[in-house]
Design a protein that fits this description.
seven-stranded mixed beta sheet; binds pyridoxal-5'-phosphate; alpha/beta
Length: 398
């Protein structure tokens, strides 16, 4: 018997599988609204000017791509902390934050999950219902049981605040609670500051461990505004985890640039925690790659490049917002009933359309429009060239 004869076919990744089907589709009118990627008005993944400038400078300086410390580049870590917590934040000054470069936001979640498994081997992990598909898979593969807490309310197209708080209260004490800090994926529906305060109270009461995931900072209302939840947590005095990503905000998907930040109780605790995190990293991939993080650090630490990046990020945010508004308006003009999930208030790259699996299937088969089976639509893939055909197709299947 061959070693692999009993290996079963793994289920297709819902999003990567969709991409394969999209690529194989020969219709010229096809549109991919499935993948979570920002496309510009020309339908291309942009190369940000700030990134191009930083890469050029790096090549001209013949900067080596040699060996670096396991946890990454100090200038990068500092820049990440300032984006998350604000420049000069008290907990940065107090040495309560440690940041390690990670392989994208996914890598940050994975290092965090592996470290948590050593700290709290018997804990339960709770994720929002619904959530980014990989949250469940990541924490399960780190060995945790994963539950959902109520989050999205399809009737109000908002957050089920009461249900969420009740579910968080009912989790076993010291559970790990994964929270989308902004631009919730897939719904585009976020908590308001007063909701975050109520959530914080429950987390404190139940001694849960918050794990904030922020993969779209800057795509909601702005860089600082989108970090509001992270900063509320920072003020609360709690210990918590943050995974962050530059894949979208720097359009650097392939470079895998992200970070894991941990807030501890003291500088002394931070030193011990960092030493353990380095072990987790060392036994996974030894050291992180250097190019993408160096580029990000150069941009964030140069006033000119930073201003350029902020302007470009603002343009991406505004473009998505205007496409979402245009879609909402066009659907209303077509006479679509307002009992589905596109609303102007959604933030970030996604809308939770409320389309059923059958409707999503029809969109694909009849119109060559690809969306995730759950109804998640990537609004950032819309442009003036495809908006009309997409809204007409959605209206047709509704
Ligand atoms: C909520 C959320 N967290 C994390 C990630 C992972 O980001 P990265 O592509 O940097 O691994 C994503 C990407 O889709 C996401 O949507």
């Amino acid at each position: 018997m061959s070693l692999f004869s009993a290996v079963e076919m793994a289920p297709r990744d819902p999003i990567l599988g969709l991409n394969e089907a999209f690529n194989a589709d020969t219709r010229t009118t096809k549109v991919n609204l499935g993948v979570g990627v920002y496309y510009n008005e020309e339908g291309r993944i942009p190369l940000l000017r700030a990134v191009a400038e930083a890469e050029k400078a790096r090549i001209e300086a013949h900067a080596p791509r040699g060996y670096l410390p396991i946890e990454g580049i100090a200038a990068y870590d500092k820049a990440v902390q300032e984006l998350l917590f604000g420049k000069g934040a008290a907990l940065i000054e107090a040495g309560r934050v440690i940041t390690t470069q990670a392989l994208g936001g996914t890598g940050a979640l994975k290092i965090g999950a592996d470290f948590l498994k050593r700290l709290l081997p018997d804990a339960t992990v709770a994720i929002s219902d619904p959530s980014w598909e990989n949250h469940r898979a990541l924490f399960e593969s780190a060995g945790f049981p994963v539950q959902n807490y109520r989050y999205y309310d399809p009737f109000s197209n908002g957050v089920n605040r009461g249900g969420m708080l009740e579910d968080l209260r009912n989790l076993p004490a010291r559970s790990i609670v994964v929270l989308h800090a902004c631009c919730h994926n897939p719904t585009g529906v976020d908590l308001q500051p007063e909701d975050w305060k109520a959530v914080l109270e429950v987390l404190r009461e139940r001694e849960h461990v918050p794990f904030l995931d922020i993969a779209y900072q800057g795509f909601g209302d702005g860089i600082d505004q989108d970090a509001e939840a992270v900063r509320l947590f920072a003020e609360s005095g709690l210990e918590f985890f943050v995974s962050s990503s530059f894949s979208k905000s720097f359009s650097l998907y392939g470079e895998r640039v992200g970070a894991l930040s941990l807030v501890t109780s003291s500088r002394e605790e931070s030193t011990r925690v960092l030493s353990q995190l380095k072990r987790v990293i060392r036994t996974n991939y030894s050291n992180p790659p250097t190019h993408g993080a160096t580029v990000v650090a150069s941009v964030l630490n140069s006033p000119e490049l930073r201003a350029m990046w902020e302007a470009e990020l603002g343009e991406m945010r505004d473009r998505i917002r205007s496409m979402r508004l245009a879609m909402v308006e066009q659907l209303a003009t077509l006479g679509a009933k307002r009992d589905f999930g596109f609303v102007a208030e959604q933030r970030g790259m996604f809308s939770y359309s409320g389309l059923t699996v059958e409707q999503v299937e029809r969109l694909k088969n009849e119109f060559g429009i690809y969306a995730v089976g759950t109804g998640r639509i990537c609004v950032a893939a819309l442009n003036h060239g495809n908006l009309d055909s997409v809204t007409r197709a959605i209206h047709a299947v509704l």
